[in-house]
Amino acid sequence: MIFLRLILTNLSRHRIRTAISVAGIAFAVAAMLTVVTILQGAVGMFSSLLSADSQIVVFERNVADLFFSSVPQSAMDAIPTWALVEHANPVLFGIVASPTQPIITCFGVTATDTRLTRATWVAGSDAAFHAAGQATGKVEDSSQGADSVVLGERAAEFLHAQLHSTIALGNGHFTVGGILRTRNGFEDGGVFMPLATAQRFFHKQGIASVVTVKLHHPSDAAAFKARLQREFPTLIALEDQEFNNSYSQFKILKATAWAVGLAGVLMGGLGVANTMIMSVFTRIREIAILRVNGFSPLQLTALILGEAAVVSFTGSVVGLGTGVLAVMVLKSVPMLHGYVDATMSPGLLLAVTALATGTGIAGALYPAAYAMRVRPVEALRFE
Amino acid sequence: MNSSMAEAKATTKEPILQAEGLTKAYENGAIPVLHGVSLQVYPQQTVALCGPSGCGKSTLLHLLGGLDAADAGEIVVRGQPLRPGRMVQNMLRHQVGFVFQLHNLLPDLTLTENCLIPTVAAGVPRAEAMERLHQLADRTGLSHRLQQRIQKLSGGERQRTALCRALMNRPSILLADEPTGALDEATSRQIFALLLELVDREGITLVMATHDRALAARCDRLLEMHDGKMMDGAGSGARTAG
Ligand SMILES: Nc1ncnc2c1ncn2[C@@H]1O[C@H](COP(=O)(O)OP(=O)(O)OP(=O)(O)O)[C@@H](O)[C@H]1O
Ligand SMILES: [Mg+2]
Prior knowledge:
A: alpha+beta, 2 domains, 16 helices, B: about 240 residues, about 35% helix, binds adenosine-5'-triphosphate, binds magnesium ion
């Protein structure tokens, strides 16, 4: 009790100093939480987008970003015919802008794609994809009427589109043939086009970004990779987990998120260290008094680390609140629809709190060591 | 306390506190302060330590209480040689109480909280500590000030609080360094009377540095220091004041 009183009394003696170091930790925690949550959400969405009911992703070897990957028609045609393969779906990724929305992800998919076949339809259907499928190979004349596309529910919302309305994407016009609901933020905020339409629209005739593959037996993955390597040496096949671990964009994102977060927490920790140094240096006399009254160096250490713990724990809690709020605000920004997936795992919250509190306490180690060396006689000699 | 009683104490018991050939210099030897100080203090004696300013009274008290280490010589407390570290720790918790010229209380805490500090350090159960505090507050006339912050107490009240705090863990030795030096004369007499009364009632051994000859005269013994030495025969235990 007196312990706690000593801690709280000292903190309340310098309210502004205390508040500043609490704020330092809070900012750090909020920043870390926001950045890690958003990027993890993005990575998670992107990878679940690729792995929808598939096990392997085929794409061009050595590309920095899947948007730049080119899988040729020959591979798109061959892979589904391999005996190991249950089904294989080409997907072409593209980015377009609408008058109101600078970035919309487009997915060029075929009618058999599970994104369509398993979708929950809010309105309309995937009829356009079947029609487009039959038309593949023809040189189509789109001037006759607008191509039909399917929108994710959120895309429909921010494009203010309903079934059969016409939307402008890039320098083209499309009719909304259906609206579907998916759990994936990217897809929900995306536009689905028949593959052929997308190829024409993005000037990538005969090309897909990736082919997602489901095998009859998951254990055939090695055999599949070997055959791909033999027949299409410019392509690479990665199992979903491998892909998540090796795709350089993910690596960069994750590393950046943690680096930014850690740097923030470290700065917060330095703030606490600074506060604690001030706190100890201006309290030499008090420390000496405690020593004369029988406090052991260990008890003094507990006192000072306790002070740091109160500051950094309070900061963490404030930071968690701010971070959750920040993510919620970001989530409600229309521009970021489909890119922020604000699911914060309790594990992450705990990890961030523990990290920030731990760093704060670590910051108090030097001041604590200093306090232990205070010589009571010399300290008491001076007023 | 009369002189025959004091002599009886001196002769029937082993010294409770003993020093032999203490030397101490500050600044790596540049400022020599104590030059071979020896003394024996017997249980329940009250000893006044007098001498000109700068002769080393405070230094000696600090060494006796383990707050600082001597360069040479030995200190024996209740038959045990004083060693730095754990032993000093235990001594400060259970054997020795300090009172200084400045009260050295924590101004932001209440009287009660200040007095509980030594009991927290020593791990005394709260209820027991509170009981002791009420007893001491009663005897020092502070019962009505228990929840008061130190900032709001008068000088005399502060010094009485410091006295309570020093006695909380029932030490057998009280080391006092000019305990009334910062008070006006009337208050000084009052506090000193209280000090003697408490020490007598609880059977505590008192070693007190003071410039006040009148106060020193009321102690069992007077030790005279000069330039870091005891005056002839002063430390031997015979009553010289009086
Ligand atoms: N930490 C220190 N560093 C350097 N010199 C010191 C230190 N402590 C004490 N001294 C010196 O040692 C000498 C003895 O000091 P001490 O405080 O023991 O004297 P004192 O007898 O208590 O004096 P007073 O009656 O004025 O309190 C003084 O000359 C003082 O300046
Ligand atoms: Mg002195």
